[in-house]
Design brief:
The chain is of the alpha/beta class. 35% of the residues lie in helices and 19% in strands. Bound molecules: 2'-monophosphoadenosine-5'-diphosphate.
Length: 272
């Protein structure tokens, strides 16, 4: 049976094994999906051996998402632009193909859960400039956003993203975060603020339009304080779990030959 898994460190808390195992059972497919803890100094060796062990591919998570780009034989344009990969395909000859499906997952989640969302020719606001923010920025630009505002506690990281992604980006100072929301129809928290055990993301929402779609990449808890406040203002909110589910679908299809459905049952399984 074909093998796939998720490579990271730590990896015990990953929801991916439950999700993929659920999809395998649901579609009656042969295969296994396992968590694989790998230290950074062992990544190259593990990737070389996995195809010979029967692995057809893998997901990659922290801290390896950047390093796999240098170890892969081929890298998609979007993974190169984002500077990270989350999905690997092992070819029959052992060659490694690296892709990034995070941006796809981000957009697919909004399209599924906010059907009125229409990014084309709109203004978006992204809070945060880490690895996850880069995938969000790439996918929003692909979706036709004309102005993409970005802010980050460490301003330099936002400026680096602008330098790489270009003219449609506007960097706002972290102190100007409230002003960034005016006229934005997509608002994204791509920081880790709001996660269980961390401080909430607290920003003045007075300028936020009630017509905006507001989403958070944090999904523990599903309802972050930021989303709760946006909802209280009448915004359409979308939690971050769907991005996790949707980013998993292309890999599953490539490895096991069946496009899996992201539905309530998949959500429930990932939360168990
Ligand atoms: P990820 O891959 O999840 O994006 P990351 O690259 O470590 O992880 O990025 C974390 C993001 O959360 C960054 O935007 C970070 O801001 P800095 O670049 O200034 O570190 C943001 N973040 C984390 N803790 C924060 C805090 N206490 N206040 C403001 N921003 C914070």
């Amino acid at each position: 049976a074909p093998l796939a898994g998720v490579i990271g460190m730590p990896i015990a808390h990953s929801r991916s094994p439950r999700l993929h195992t659920h999809w395998l059972a649901r579609y009656g497919l042969r295969g296994h999906y396992v968590p694989i803890p790998v230290m950074p100094e062992h990544l190259a060796e593990v990737l070389r051996v996995m195809p010979r062990m029967g692995f057809v591919g893998a997901n990659v998570t922290i801290p390896h998402k950047e390093a796999v780009l240098t170890l892969a034989d081929t890298v998609t344009d979007r993974a190169a632009l984002i500077g990270a990969a989350n999905t690997l395909i092992f070819r029959p000859d052992g060659k490694i193909h690296a892709d990034n499906t995070d941006g796809y997952g981000f957009v697919a989640n909004l399209r599924q859960n906010a059907p009125e969302w229409s990014p084309d020719k709109s203004t978006a606001a992204v809070i945060g400039a880490g690895g996850a923010a880069r995938a969000v920025v790439a996918s929003l630009l692909d979706s036709g956003v004309t102005e993409l505002r970005i802010t980050n506690r460490t301003r330099l990281r936002a400026e680096q993203i602008k330098a790489e992604f270009g003219a449609r980006l506007v960097v706002y100072d972290w102190a100007q975060i409230g002003n960034m929301l005016e006229g934005a129809t997509t608002v994204v928290n791509a920081t880790s603020l709001g996660m269980e055990g961390k401080q909430p993301l607290r920003i003045p929402l007075d300028a936020l339009s009630p017509g905006a779609v507001v989403t958070d990449l944090v999904y523990t808890p599903l309802m972050t304080p930021f989303l709760a406040e946006a909802q209280a203002r009448g915004c359409h909110i979308v939690d971050g779990l769907g991005m996790l589910l949707h980013q998993a679908a292309p890999g599953f299809e490539r490895w096991f030959g069946q496009r899996p459905e992201v539905d309530d049952e998949a959500r429930r399984v990932a939360l168990e």
